[in-house]
Each structure stands twice: as structure tokens, then as C-alpha cells.
Write a structure and sequence with these properties.
- Helices cover about 35% and strands about 20% of the residues.
- The strands form 8 sheets. Strands 4-3-2-1-5-6 form a 6-stranded mixed β-sheet, sandwiched between helices. The protein has a 6-stranded mixed β-sheet with strand order 12-11-10-8-13-14.
- It starts with 11 loop residues before the first helix and ends with a helix.
- The mean pLDDT is about 95.
Length: about 600
């Protein structure tokens, strides 16, 4: 479980590997090749064997892309990674471009030449993404050409790590809350209602949820890599590497699920000839659409039928995540107490902070893994949103600085994700004022009530208005979905400026994480997870309203709060949250931590 702090790549990767890729391109008659971050399963976090973008460029962020042409190349990242990419990528080889503003399509329009053949691997791109890429290439007079195997994999050759084969194990009903048969028949009925006879499921989180199984093929997420075909009658075929199949798995899956190997998948798709089959064009690779169409199936483009049901946690999952957050909150509170005592005398460096927090989580005896590599950013590193400490860039906190720590754990009963920003020594007035603006936005999003049909996009501004009123903002989303002992980033819901058509529903878990980042100096973020509650009637109202229940339980650094900037309502809300933290976490921690909690959770 322990986080490592060595660089897994370096800027020399480009100089070493780009010539090999170009040689393989030439052998396949290609003038270029598109490298997405995503793998065959459209994963955000990747096993080492599928981290093609990192191997080609040196860039290790969780979102990005690259284009390698015969005489030029570019790497694409979003606003979270603009500093990291310059540290990791050789800029004499790669032009650094914005992934969001124009992205790869705009680059193809400008850089591709008429008559060029630019390769792509149909197993790595969704049809939705390919549509925009093909349109851009056509405007330049170039052609996108599918290639299998792709030139990057050929260049990687025997040096490529093996595919993961972590055991696939049952996820007990005491945590799942609904057996797989019930889920499969429920989703099967939804397929029939759409006029479909089957669905091809490729998202690892959906496979884990649907069959009540967990694995370990993806870093920091208990996901099994595989595929499934779900029929409208609730029966299914599950395709896994035989090395992953544990002795208890066949009986756990039951008679309605046929367990097969990954090599059986192409034939299974052929056997869907003449059937109406749902496949998600945003989540599944283009290869599935081509294979099904070639076999004579009628492909119905539609959302992954498991995504929305998976996002709406059942009562057992909600109670489980409450337990997980209470347990995790005790570990985090022990860490915050350490920062408030020893850390104020001997300020830690980032690696020391990460290691100490991991130790407290391990002492729970229940953690299975981190939910992502801990972000501990001291001084200017705190202003890098998705920063990860390494031995090379490790900084020590100093008196009068801020330390931002974003972390989480994977427990059988839930997944956690929490950020706290802590003052080391005496913070400046500017730090306190900007922290309080972030806090005001966090509190506003915590207490809002909203009717059915409300999307996260409609709520996003609530967290930003206090910052906006001072000419400030942050360049990331305000909230993402979170799984139940699954991925720490889960859709289809989110809270962000970007439009989202998926309404928030009871049982959905989302983060609430506004922030402020002063480049080169410090970062501020406050993050809790919260679950959407059942709608309640409002006295004198006409429509029932949903709300958020805070799941995360850990104190917020009151030394950074300017009380005078808070309204009476906000002070009451802040105090009520801390009373709950003390009531739930206090009994779980040692006496000295409990005494400290009583101080920091006292009313403002």
C-alpha cells in the first residue's frame, strides 16, 4: 500500500522512446500516431502495462494525450498539470499544448499535412473522441488509419510490463447491499425497456459493481480488468484472464453467469449477430462498435446501463461509507493533531507528512489501500492542484506557511477522499482571508437544498461566489462522484462549470472541494465528501427538497478562519459540523488527541 516517492519516468523518456515509435510508424506506413492517456478500458488510473503516454513522453498525470508526427510532436495536458508537465517532458521534443482549449483536434488541423496517414489504435479511443479527431484530420486533408498492433506497443516490445493478474474476489453482500442477480435482472429490465437484447459492459467499475466482485488490476482502485455481455433476461458472460479467477469465484457468480477468458470475447461479440446491443460511445472503445457492426449486430449507442444505478448508493452502502469515514476521520484527526503539536515545532517535509498519515491509516487495521497517492504540498507545491511528492521535488514546510494535504483510503465499506489545509506557524492575513473565502464557498455548497432535476452544474457557482466577489477563482471542478469501495473518481454526476445533464439523485456521493492557489507561494483547498439525501417536504413549501449530508469528519483549521468574514448562519454551520466531528471521532482517538479535538472543535 505504501506510497513511493521515486520518479517513475524522466524527461529522457522522450529522447529514448520517440525514435523507436517513429521507426515503428515508418514500418507501418504511418506519418503520425495518436497516444491517448486512456487504455483499453478507458481507465483514468492505469496499470503500468497500459501507461503508454508516460512511456512515450515521461508525463505521469491522470489526464492527457500526445501526437507524434514524423518531424514534430506535442503533449496535451489540462490546467492541473501545467507545471508538472514541464518538469517531466523534454520540451525540445514535445510542444506543450492545452488539452481542453482546442486540444488534439485543433493541433491536427494545424499540424497534419494533406495526404498524411495518422494512426490510432481502435482499442484505445472511444467513438465520441474519434469523431472529433477524424473531423479535424479531414479538415487538414489527412487520414486517420486504425492500426493493430499499434506502433507504440511494437516499440515498447519486451520491455513492456506484463498485464496485471490480481485475484478477483467476491465483494460480500454485507457491503454491497444488493446481490448480483438482483442487479443483473434490474439492469436487464432497463435494457428491455430500451428495446435492447443485450449490453456490452467494458468499464471496470461497472463490472465490479454488477457482479459484486473486486480486484487489484488498477493502482489505488480495487478494480478487475475484464469485459461482460449482459442479456436482457439477466444472464451474463464475464470475460477474465484465467489467472485472476479465484477458487470461490465461479460459485459466487452463480449459474446465470458464464465465466470465460478474454480470448473468448471476439467470438462472443460475433454471436450477438442480429441482436440490438447497447454500447456506451463515451466509455467503450471504438473496436467494440466495429466488431459488433461487422458481426451484423444492431448497435444502440447509449449510456453504460450500470453507471447511474452504481452512482446511487443503496442504504447498506451509505451506512458503510459513514462507518468508513468515521474510521478514516479518526486516523486523519490523529495526523492533524500531530501537525498541530510536533509539526509546529519541527515542521515536516512533504514525504514525512505523507508517511505519517499513511501510518495512522494503517493502524486502523481496516484499510485495503490508499484511494490515490497522497497530495502533500508545502509552500509553492501546494499551488499545484494534482501535485505528488517525489524525492526530487520534496519541500519542507516552514514557519508562516501552509501545508495542503489531499488524501484518502480504500476500505471494504467505503472510499474516502478529504483535503485539509493547515497553517504551520502564524499564517499571513492574506492566507487567512483567502482561506475564509474558500470556506464560505464550501459551507454554501454544504447547506444548499435543491429540487429533483438539479444538476451539479447548477450548484457549482455557490462554491465560487465568495471568491468571485474578490476577483479570484480556481481552475478545477468543485465536485466529483465517488464509488463504494471502487474508484475515487466516479460518474456520471459532477459539480463543475462544465455543463452536465445528469441530475443529482439520492444516494449519490460527491466531493465539495473549492480552493485557491497562489502560484509559487501556497495552495488552499477544503474538501469533504457528501451524500445526496432523500427529498424532504419543506414547511410551507410546494416541492420536496434534497440536501447534502457531510460524510467526511475531520476538523478544519480554525486558525485560518477570519470569524468576522462569516455570517451568523455560517458560524452556526461551522460550529455544528465540528460538534459532529467531536461526537463521532472523539471516542475513537487517544486521550491527548481527544483533548485537542475538544479545543479545535469548540464553537468559534
Amino acid at each position: 500500500m505504501r506510497q513511493t516517492f521515486d520518479e517513475s519516468t524522466d524527461p529522457s523518456f522522450g529522447a529514448k522512446h520517440v525514435p523507436l515509435i517513429r521507426q515503428a510508424m515508418a514500418e507501418q506506413g504511418l506519418d503520425g500516431f495518436l497516444i491517448p492517456h486512456e487504455d483499453e478500458h478507458q481507465n483514468e488510473y492505469l496499470p503500468a502495462a497500459n501507461d503508454r503516454l508516460a512511456w512515450a513522453t515521461g508525463f505521469t498525470g491522470s489526464a492527457g494525450a500526445a501526437v507524434i508526427l514524423r518531424d514534430r510532436a506535442a503533449v496535451f495536458v489540462d490546467g492541473r498539470y501545467t507545471i508538472q508537465v514541464r518538469d517531466q517532458v523534454d520540451q525540445s521534443l514535445f510542444e506543450i499544448r492545452d488539452l481542453v482549449d482546442g486540444g488534439v483536434p485543433a493541433y491536427l488541423e494545424q499540424a497534419a499535412a494533406p495526404g498524411q496517414a495518422i494512426g490510432y489504435d481502435p482499442r484505445l479511443h472511444s467513438p465520441d473522441a474519434l469523431y472529433h479527431l477524424k473531423t479535424a484530420a479531414a479538415k487538414a486533408g489527412a487520414e486517420l488509419r486504425p492500426v493493430t498492433p499499434n506502433p507504440l506497443d511494437k516499440a515498447w516490445g519486451e520491455a513492456r510490463p506484463p498485464q496485471p493478474t490480481a485475484p478477483v474476489v467476491p465483494h460480500p453482500l454485507e457491503y454491497a447491499g444488493e446481490d448480483s442477480s438482483s442487479k443483473r435482472h434490474r439492469i436487464g429490465e432497463s435494457l428491455a425497456a430500451r428495446g435492447a437484447e443485450a449490453a456490452v459492459i467494458t468499464a471496470p467499475a461497472s463490472i465490479a459493481w454488477l457482479f459484486n466482485i473486486r480486484g487489484g488490476d488498477v493502482i489505488r482502485s480495487p478494480l478487475p480488468l475484464g469485459q461482460a455481455v449482459l442479456n436482457a433476461d439477466g444472464s451474463a458472460r464475464l470475460f477474465l484472464d484465467p489467472q485472476k479467477v479465484t477458487p470461490e469465484l465461479p460459485a459466487w457468480l452463480g449459474n446465470e453467469v458464464r465465466l470465460e477468458t478474454s480470448e473468448d470475447l471476439p467470438q462472443a461479440l460475433t454471436e450477438l449477430r442480429g441482436k440490438r446491443v447497447v454500447v456506451d460511445p463515451a466509455q467503450s472503445a471504438s473496436w467494440y462498435f466495429e466488431a459488433l457492426s461487422g458481426a451484423g449486430a444492431e448497435v444502440l449507442r447509449g449510456d453504460d446501463p450500470c453507471a447511474l444505478p452504481r452512482a446511487c448508493k443503496n442504504p447498506v452502502e451509505i451506512e458503510g461509507t459513514r462507518r468508513a469515514h468515521a474510521r478514516d476521520g479518526a486516523a486523519l484527526s490523529r495526523f492533524l493533531h500531530w501537525l498541530a503539536t510536533e509539526g509546529q515545532v519541527n515542521p515536516p517535509d512533504e514525504i514525512e507528512a505523507v508517511t505519517k498519515l499513511e501510518g495512522f491509516r494503517e493502524e486502523t487495521g481496516a484499510i485495503k489501500d490508499l484511494s490515490f497517492d497522497t497530495i502533500a504540498g508545502a509552500l509553492g507545491n501546494g499551488a499545484i492542484c494534482h501535485y505528488r511528492p517525489t524525492r526530487k521535488n520534496n519541500k519542507r514546510a516552514t514557519m508562516g506557511s501552509l501545508l495542503l494535504v489531499d488524501s484518502g483510503g480504500q476500505y471494504l465499506d467505503g472510499t474516502t477522499d478529504v483535503t485539509r489545509t493547515v497553517a504551520i506557524g502564524e499564517p499571513t492575513q492574506e492566507m487567512r482571508e483567502r482561506f475564509t473565502l474558500v470556506l464560505k464557498g464550501h459551507l454554501a455548497l454544504s447547506r444548499v437544498m435543491f429540487p429533483a432535476g438539479t444538476t451539479g452544474s447548477a450548484l457549482d457557482a455557490l462554491a465560487r461566489v465568495p471568491l468571485w466577489s474578490h476577483g479570484l477563482d480556481y481552475d478545477h471542478g468543485t465536485g466529483h462522484g465517488v464509488g463504494s469501495y471502487l474508484g475515487v473518481h466516479e460518474g456520471p454526476q459532477r459539480i463543475s462549470k462544465a455543463p452536465n445533464t445528469v441530475a443529482l439523485r439520492p444516494g449519490m456521493i460527491v466531493s465539495n472541494e473549492p480552493g485557491y492557489y497562489k502560484e509559487g507561494e501556497y495552495g488552499i483547498r477544503i474538501e469533504n465528501l457528501q451524500v445526496v439525501t432523500q427529498p424532504q417536504e419543506i414547511k410551507g413549501g410546494e416541492r420536496p427538497m434534497m440536501a447534502f449530508e457531510a460524510l467526511t469528519l475531520a476538523p478544519i483549521d480554525r486558525r485560518l478562519v477570519v470569524k468576522e468574514m462569516l455570517t451568523d448562519e455560517e458560524r452556526h454551520q461551522f460550529d455544528a459540523y465540528h460538534a459532529r466531528v467531536l461526537g463521532v471521532v472523539g471516542p475513537q482517538v487517544p486521550a491527548d488527541v481527544r483533548a485537542w479535538l475538544e479545543e479545535v472543535c469548540a464553537p468559534l
